[in-house]
Design brief:
Number of strands: 16
CATH architecture: 4-Layer Sandwich
Bound molecules: fe (ii) ion
Number of domains: 1
Strand content: 15-25%
Shape: globular
Oligomer: single chain
CATH class: Alpha Beta
């Protein structure tokens, strides 16, 4: 199998829009690597809350070395036109502590945007799971080596309890497998007013994700819109394109609009390569993400980030960072 170079992948796609790319300055990279190496031994046996607060202080200390870097970084929350950021020139690690160091780095890189959390049913509830492809995995899951279609995560559950941001720290990517992100702001530019209106109707049902191992197969959400406005009035999207069905009682023509939506999603995609020493973090509700089939070895550390974890704790009725899907979802329909 031919291995496409990173340049070949990138040159075959359009320039990113709504994805802000920048490099970590060398002085921050050096300082961050040093801080992480000192800190990592102290994390052994440390609880998650303490690891997060340690990550916060490492991020504050290292990132404040460059105002420009901090400004770029903050754009994910300060600029509504920025739906994702992609950072390269991150420190990389070798040796027996590299996994612990990468996990800690993944926390440091996302902690500015919220609190990390995980579902008990996914990746054994590990807060920052290491994702690698496994042959024979069910399609359209993050362990499948095949193409992973366009989706937002967890449209099945209420928007309030879903991840706000998904952070991917690249550790290994032999064949430069690209990750795609189609911002909703770009998608709507290619849809008519009428098509947008139809996509705003609550007539779409989303299947429980296959990655949830418990009684997963055929549970569907109540009917919801694909395009909606979030609590801040910002245009938002929810849709696993391969796991969506249309309410049978709705008007004819919705299927055609949904097909058009899927076509436009593919035409609106920005590709980034989550290679070693890069970090890609994107808003789950401001675009759909996807990944090409994985050839060779690929390892990323993925973290879910929520900007209001108290909401999940209140709904679930317990504190902590790991929640069961059933804690956050109480109505399902077959
Ligand atoms: Fe996903």
């Amino acid at each position: 199998m031919n291995t496409p170079s990173k340049k070949q992948w990138l040159s075959s796609y359009e320039e990113p829009t709504h994805v802000h790319s920048f490099s970590m300055p060398d002085n921050i990279k050096k300082a961050l690597a040093k801080e992480l190496i000192i800190a990592v031994n102290n994390t052994i046996g440390m609880d998650i809350a303490a690891q997060i607060s340690m990550s916060e202080s490492i991020a504050k200390k290292a990132f404040s070395l460059s105002k420009d870097f901090e400004n770029d970084y903050e754009k994910l929350i300060s600029d509504p036109a920025v739906a994702a950021i992609y950072i390269d020139n991150l420190p990389s690690f070798t040796g027996i502590t590299k996994f612990a160091l990468n996990r800690l780095l993944a926390l440091v890189l996302g902690v500015r945007f919220g609190m990390p959390f995980q579902f008990r049913e996914q990746h054994n509830g590990i807060l920052v799971p290491e994702l690698t492809p496994k042959k024979g995995s069910i399609g359209n899951t993050n362990s499948s080596p095949e193409d992973f279609g366009s989706h937002t995560d967890d449209a099945y559950i209420d928007a309030k309890f879903r991840t706000k941001y998904i952070g991917l720290l690249g550790v290994e990517n032999e064949q430069h497998t690209p990750t795609g992100y189609s911002p909703i702001a770009r998608i709507v530019e290619s849809l008519s007013e009428r098509e947008i209106d139809i996509l705003k109707q609550p007539v779409f049902q989303f299947r429980q994700p296959f990655s949830f191992v418990t009684d997963s197969d055929n549970k569907w959400s109540e009917s919801k819109p694909i395009i909606y406005f979030d609590e801040h009035g910002l245009l938002s999207v929810q849709c696993p394109t391969y796991n969506t069905r249309i309410d049978p009682n709705c008007e004819i023509g919705v299927q055609r609009v949904f097909e058009k939506f899927k076509k436009v999603v593919e035409e609106s995609v920005n590709w980034v390569i989550v290679d070693p020493s890069t970090y890609f973090i994107f808003k789950n509700d401001k675009g759909l993400h996807q990944r090409k089939a994985i050839g060779g070895k690929r390892t990323i550390f993925r973290t879910y980030w929520h900007d209001n974890l108290a909401r999940l704790m209140s709904k679930a009725g317990h504190t902590g960072f790991v929640f069961s899907l059933s804690d956050l979802k109480d109505d399902t329909r077959d």
